[in-house]
């Protein structure tokens, strides 16, 4: 299980980090909030001695959650109802017998949030956490590595924005099975950062 958490989740975690940095590169205001926050919380070169310090990276966490909403790392999830279930819709009902295999495509919340196609991390400071949001699954099949993935992503995104000014590098960004394609950034080392003093 430890091997699974350490290795099986590396592609999805790196995809989450890449998408988050991509969105932040196109949103200088949010990137600056993440940078200022990280400069305060992550004063040392590298990870903090106490992982609990990462809880102070609220803007970083909001950017990651918003990236997960827009680009879920696992866009398709399989489910099987344990008992006969009827889903009531507008003008129709969907009957699902027990054991029926179904695939759910994760949505970016078009019906739950305003301007769903826009990257707006600040929405996570309001009531967004109450909306249906399952990027790591739910129930007994909930991803056992979700805490590690979020910890890694928060640390990497925070350190990247603390030490670098990120900008898009042009080109067309695509997506293949939730993974970014053609995603390139122009990182410029910030003067006076902890990283700059060691290069």
Automatic annotation (TrEMBL):
Heme binds at residue 143. Keywords: Heme, Iron, Metal-binding, Monooxygenase, Oxidoreductase. It comes from the Bacteria. GO terms for molecular function: heme binding; iron ion binding; monooxygenase activity; oxidoreductase activity, acting on paired donors, with incorporation or reduction of molecular oxygen. Its cofactor is heme. Belongs to the cytochrome P450 family. This is Cytochrome P450. It comes from Catenuloplanes indicus.
């Amino acid at each position: 299980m430890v091997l699974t958490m350490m290795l099986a989740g590396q592609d999805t975690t790196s995809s989450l980090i890449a998408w988050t940095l991509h969105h932040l590169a196109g949103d200088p205001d949010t990137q600056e909030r993440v940078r200022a926050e990280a400069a305060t919380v992550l004063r040392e070169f590298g990870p903090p001695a106490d992982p609990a310090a990462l809880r102070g990276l609220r803007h970083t966490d909001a950017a990651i959650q918003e990236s997960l909403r827009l680009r879920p790392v696992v866009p398709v999830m399989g489910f099987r109802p344990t008992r006969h279930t009827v889903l009531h819709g507008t003008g129709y009902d969907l009957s699902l017998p027990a054991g029926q295999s179904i695939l759910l495509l994760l949505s970016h919340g078009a019906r739950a949030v305003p301007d769903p196609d826009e990257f707006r991390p600040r929405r996570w400071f309001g009531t967004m956490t109450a909306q249906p949001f399952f990027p790591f699954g739910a129930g007994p099949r909930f991803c056992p590595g979700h805490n590690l993935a979020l910890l890694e992503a928060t640390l990497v995104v925070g350190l990247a924005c603390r030490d670098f000014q990120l900008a898009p590098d042009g080109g067309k960004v695509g997506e293949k099975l939730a993974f970014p394609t053609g995603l390139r950034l122009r990182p410029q080392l910030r003067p006076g950062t902890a990283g700059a003093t060691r290069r």
